[in-house]
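User: Could you walk me through two proteins back to back? I'd like the raw sequence and the structure tokens for each, with a short line separating them so I can tell where one ends and the next begins.

Assistant: Of course. Protein one, sequence then structure:
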Amino acid sequence: MTGSAEADAGALAGGGAVVSLGDGWESDEGGAGSGRRPEEGAAKGVVAAFGQSMKTLRLREGLDRAEFGNRIGYSAATVASFEQGRRIPSPRTIERADEVLRAEGLLCLWKEEVERAQYPVFFQGMAKLEKEAVELLSYDTLVVKGLLQTEEYMRALLGMRRPVLDPETIEQRVAARLARQDILSRWPAPLLSFVMDESVLRRPYGGKDVLRGQLEHLLLTGQRPNVEIQIMPLSCEESAGVDGPFTIVTRKDGKQFMYAEAQGTSALQTDPEQTTLAAARYGIIRSQTLTSRESLEFIEGLLGSL
């Protein structure tokens, strides 16, 4: 699947098919896959062009990198990375830069394209669907969903990747994942449901301090009125989720998409019959788990045992 996120989503909306996202892509959840740098391919040109535009406007204002960086909250080295297309700024950073450089919206025109460039090309369609979701249902068995991860947990997962990721790529992945978490607080609030296996909460990726912070974050996030977190206990003798993790996204127009990934391969299922069955399967999974209240109490118990 190639092209822009709009093209990806448009193609998905029209048919009933499994859209393979290919082998060797880089999972945005921290999973398997050989991966690619976000600045490779078409994204490289977008990020480079934005960086050159920002540099031109900075020089027009007579600011050196250190002074400009101080005004937008970054070091001179980071500003250099932005301008050279080696690092991707957040939408808020672009807005601040536009204001400081008196660009009158010129830099803000790049926001959507630059934001898309944060993601591996094969995740761009899914990232766009998350931004359009009115409902998102997620079942996870290996790691905490990226939308719920703390920054420390993200860094721990990305640091375990093989082949090893360079520090700059890790920073880009962290920034992209944090940007996705806007779904938790945006308005109108989408309905978000997360089910995860108990084993996910017991594995101390990055050490006990990282796990403690992650569990505390889940407790806080689980108190949001539009978020439900449920745990599938290890003691459960039945599970409709034996085929593995998946995510179902529903858009405002009612169209549903099922996303699944495993060992460097992922796919978006768009067939209405299959997405309906997946939603039904998710309902069964939820019925087999602890309730939301019981799940939060369970997480509190795990915290107390660390």
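----
Protein two, same layout:
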Amino acid sequence: MTGADGSVVLRAAGRTVAHCVTRPALAADHSPRPYLHPVTTLAGRAVTEVLPEDHVHHLGVGIAVPDVDGRNFWGGRTFVRGRGPVALANHGVQRHDGFKLCDPDGFVEEVSWTAGGERLFAEHRTVAAVPLTDTAWALDLTFSVANVSGRDLSVGSPATNGRPGAAYGGFFWRAPKEAAAPRVFGPGADGEEAVHGARAAWVAMCGDGWSLVFAGATGTTRRDPWFVRAAEYPGVGSSLAYEERLAVPAGETFVRRVVTVVADGRLDRDGAAALVRKAVAT
């Protein structure tokens, strides 16, 4: 069933685990876009947050990019080289065009990225909820983005525009802020400084009674460094433009796939690795 805001429900193991909002009523400077929220564990614990006070343009789970040829599809201020964060009227919209498929365990969505009256990207997004164990399931998200503008474009980030380390943009998951910062770790690293910017098969974030394990599920996705925040706010992304802009020539398409394990409890390294193997192989 579709709600007034275009929301649809995802289910895994017979339980509702996510809502996808396709037509959110948001201010233009939030860069309106489809997103998933709330996303929950199988026991019902929420593991996403929207419109938090620290970053009011963070919207659960989705695809957000701060710079597409100077257009802001992330929300908030735009980082301008030599000036810093600046409030600009340059925000784009990801418009939900419809579902090619919409089942209880997943959907295929068509999305248009538009800014200034121009359609820049046509996106084909596939989302599936996959049961793994009695206490874990996986959100499998693939986005295929085609440049339909008729001209060459590129994707950037504050990092490529002069702010070191701020390479957010692409798949992004905003987790709930709790009294204590979550633990983050990877296959061979512990802590925010060690995993941020790393090219690793997966990265885990564990909070109060929940764990998220993010895995790049294609070779291309695994080459994108991870963007990780824990102390300032809890969020994990896969960076499209970490060190240099991602060129998207006219008519070309880029594709990424991220599989996220959503588990009750706090996983250790071996438990996270085992669930990633199962999720990516499923």
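Residues 102 and 202 are 28 Å apart (CA to CA).

Let me know if you want the two compared in more detail.
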